[in-house]
């Protein structure tokens, strides 16, 4: 197959795999079918087994990434819609965002130092707990690699989704705002999806915390990088 | 064509137009951010400006709701391509897989517990304050 043919096949496969797995997950609701886990696994296997060169894979699919910036702008709509909640609990939401952001940064920094991970990994890990469009924007300030960052953000989302429920039970964290803020700050979009399984309020708070943490990360990155890199 | 199909077509068209507008805004804001040499990336600038426009009632929420819902709902699709380039870094991930997973798991546990704990306490405090304020307002009303 020629390169351009492979590029078209790659795009078609990526789109159909994504929408099929999403449909399937909505029907079956088993954790291992979660699109965040299953879609990358299937596509990586597809690329490896067909021996598709990465430049061919990216030729058209990289246009999907162009939608990350419009998606960032779209986050203004949930903020506007939930303005009442934000005005009723400014302290709670603010503390959640600041605590989540600092803990995310410091835990990543400390742990990568302890395990002495190489710089490309440790720098890319710093922004791992914020939503991808924000993480991809902020990572360059820390000297991170965008592709590695995307992968680490994804893994963080999966881990947060899986460990949160037993952890909340163990630590007796059960107020909706605490569950929502913790999941939004620790596991971005995957966390927000998990939070809405707990309840509507949890989901809304998780989304808001995720968005504000992301914005704060992007705005603060040049400043934080002075201390952490 | 039945009325229902016309409605569906109209909905898809509306969605496409709204996504297009978000893309246009993202592109324009990016140019602006580069041109003015702002430390804020165009996407975050666009977020702030659209929020302001909605707050001032210059842009009604319902005219951007559909596109915004789709863009934020399908976010995973947009970052699949960079994730696939993990293939390029296979040896790096293989070599450091254990410390990396430990970093991510322990780090996530820290953020989940720490944020949950702090928000739980602040929420109780703020609820108390809100109730007190509400009661005070009621008391003034009664006098």
UniProtKB/TrEMBL annotation, chain A:
What is this protein's name? LrgB family protein
One short Pfam family name for this protein? LrgB
Membrane-crossing residue ranges in chain numbering: 6-25, 32-54, 60-80, 87-111, 141-163, 175-193, 205-228
Name the membrane topology term: Multi-pass membrane protein
Q: Which UniProt keywords apply?
A: Membrane, Transmembrane, Transmembrane helix
Compartments, as annotated in UniProt: Membrane
Among InterPro entries, the record links this protein to: CidB/LrgB
Q: Where does this chain mainly localize? A: membrane
Name the PANTHER family on file: INNER MEMBRANE PROTEIN, PUTATIVE SEROTONIN TRANSPORTER
Q: For this UniProt entry, what's an example GO CC term?
A: membrane
Q: Which domain of life is it from?
A: Bacteria
């Amino acid at each position: 197959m020629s390169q351009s043919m492979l590029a078209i096949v790659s795009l078609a496969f990526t789109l159909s795999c994504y929408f099929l797995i999403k449909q399937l997950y909505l029907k079956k609701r088993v954790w291992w079918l979660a699109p965040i886990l299953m879609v990358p696994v299937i596509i990586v296997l597809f690329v490896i087994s067909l021996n598709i060169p990465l430049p061919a894979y990216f030729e058209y699919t990289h246009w999907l990434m162009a939608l990350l910036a419009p998606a960032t702008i779209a986050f203004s709509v949930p903020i506007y819609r939930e303005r009442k909640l934000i005005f009723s609990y400014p302290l709670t939401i603010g503390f959640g965002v600041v605590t989540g952001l600092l803990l995310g940064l410091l835990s990543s920094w400390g742990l990568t130092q302890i395990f002495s991970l190489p710089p490309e990994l440790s720098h890319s890990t710093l922004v791992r707990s914020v939503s991808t469009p924000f993480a991809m924007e902020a990572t360059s300030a820390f000297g991170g690699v965008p592709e590695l960052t995307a992968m680490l953000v994804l893994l963080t989302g999966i881990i947060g989704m899986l460990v949160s429920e037993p952890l909340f039970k163990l630590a007796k964290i059960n107020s909706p705002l605490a569950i929502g803020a913790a999941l939004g700050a620790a596991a971005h979009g995957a966390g927000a999806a998990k939070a809405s399984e707990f309840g509507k309020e949890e989901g809304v708070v998780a989304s808001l915390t995720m968005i504000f943490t992301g914005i704060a990360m992007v705005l603060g990155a040049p400043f934080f990088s002075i201390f952490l890199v | 064509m039945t009325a229902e199909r016309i409605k569906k077509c109209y909905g898809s068209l509306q969605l496409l137009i709204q996504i297009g507008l978000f893309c246009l805004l993202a592109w324009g804001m990016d140019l602006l951010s580069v041109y003015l040499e702002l430390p804020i990336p165009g996407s975050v600038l666009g977020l702030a400006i659209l929020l302001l426009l909605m707050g001032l009632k210059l842009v009604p929420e319902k005219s951007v709701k559909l596109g915004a819902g789709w863009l934020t709902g399908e976010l995973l699709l947009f970052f699949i391509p960079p994730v696939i380039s993990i293939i390029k870094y296979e040896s790096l991930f293989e070599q450091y897989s254990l410390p990396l997973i430990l970093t991510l798991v322990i780090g996530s546990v820290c953020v989940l517990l720490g944020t949950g704990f702090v928000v739980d306490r602040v929420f109780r405090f703020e609820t108390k304050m809100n109730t007190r304020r509400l009661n005070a307002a009621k008391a003034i009303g009664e006098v």
